[in-house]
C-alpha cells in the first residue's frame, strides 16, 4: 500500500539516480529509511560492474559492522528500479520489511519471485512490495541513459526487455499528452 512519504523518499532515490546518470552510470538510486528518517542514500557507482549496484552500496553503508536494527523497526528500501536477484536476496537477509520501487525490470527484476520453495529462513519472511511509485520519472532517467550511453552492452541491444519497457513507457506518456 502506497504511503504518504513514498513519493518524497522515492524523490531522494531519484536524486541519487540523477547523480549516477550525470556520471555516465546506469541511473539506479536507493534510499533506506525508518518511517520518515533517512538512514542512508546511494546509487550505482561503476559502469559495467555487477557488484556496485545502488542497493548493495546502500546495504554496505547502513549495515556494516554492528547494527541494532530488527524487523520490528519498519525499515523501507526505496529504489528506482526493481531489484535484481542479488539485491533482492541480500535484502531478504536484512531486517527490511518493505520494498518500494519506481520501475519494474522486465529483464532482471526479482521483487515478485515466489518463495514457496525457498529454505525456511526466507519462506517465512514477510516483505511488503509496492511498485510503480514515480515510475514515469524513473523511466525518463533510464531513457536518457539509453540515449546517451557509450556502453557496448546497451548499444548492441543488451537487456532488450528492459529497453523495450522504457521505450513503451515513454510512448505511453506521449500518447497521453495528445
Q: Can you walk through the features of this model?
A:
By secondary structure, the protein is α/β, with parallel strands linked by helices. It has helices at residues 4-22, 54-63, 85-93, 120-123, 135-148, 152-155, 160-177; strands spanning 29-34, 37-43, 75-81, 96-103, 128-131. Strands 2-1-3-4-5 form a five-stranded mixed sheet. α3 links the parallel β3 (75-81) and β4 (96-103). It is globular and about 45 Å long. The mean pLDDT is 91.
Which properties best describe this structure?
five-stranded mixed beta sheet; 178 residues; alpha/beta
In brief:
The chain is of the alpha/beta class and 178 residues long. It is built from seven helices and five strands.
Helix content: 40-55%
In DSSP terms (H or I, runs of 4 or more residues), the helix count works out at 7
Sequence of strands across the biggest β-sheet: 2-1-3-4-5
| Structural class estimated from helices and strands | alpha/beta
Task: Please provide the count of β strands.
Answer: 5
Show unreliable segments.
none
Q: Let me know the average pLDDT.
A: 91
Quaternary class: single chain
- Percentage of β-strand residues: 15-25%
Topology:
Blueprint: H1 4-22, E1 29-34, E2 37-43, H2 54-63, E3 75-81, H3 85-93, E4 96-103, H4 120-123, E5 128-131, H5 135-148, H6 152-155, H7 160-177
Parallel strand pairs: 3-4, 4-5
Antiparallel strand pairs: 1-2, 1-3
